[in-house]
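Format is sequence with structure; example below:
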Amino acid sequence: MKKISIAFLAAVSLASFGCKKKGGGSDIVAKMGEFKDHMCACKEGDKDCAMKVQKEMADYAEANKDMKDQKMSDEDMKKAQDIGMELAKCSAKAMGAGAMGGMGEKPPEKLNASHMTDGKVDRTRPLCPYPQVAKYNGTGSIDDAANFACKVP
């Protein structure tokens, strides 16, 4: 998810560039469109492709950092934001993010939380998917997740 956020921030930072150099904001919007097209051409789960596009974006942003203080028109800014959102979606797909926002992996079937006191785990509980809650099964320590089950209340 962190890499997806980086891609989105890179897209938005491109949109923050100005409009006085060459063709102005429309050039930036066009370049963002190219990056979006490259990212959307990456196959699902093709992290190498996504990383290549992210590097292209970072290199472009670095090479054009002198334009950062200039402003884009409202129309170009809106276009850039729309392109940035599409680019982020394509980046998520290419990086392998699933529908739940994970990185292409199935969520764990069981996940426990721990409480620590003085550096030692003194209590665990299962973390349950909504709407389920952890219910004590009536036997064993109430400080051990193994003695709880996820149940719908």
User: Anything to note?
Assistant: Strands lie at 112-117, 120-126, 133-136, 148-151. Residues 74-95 form the longest helix (22 residues).
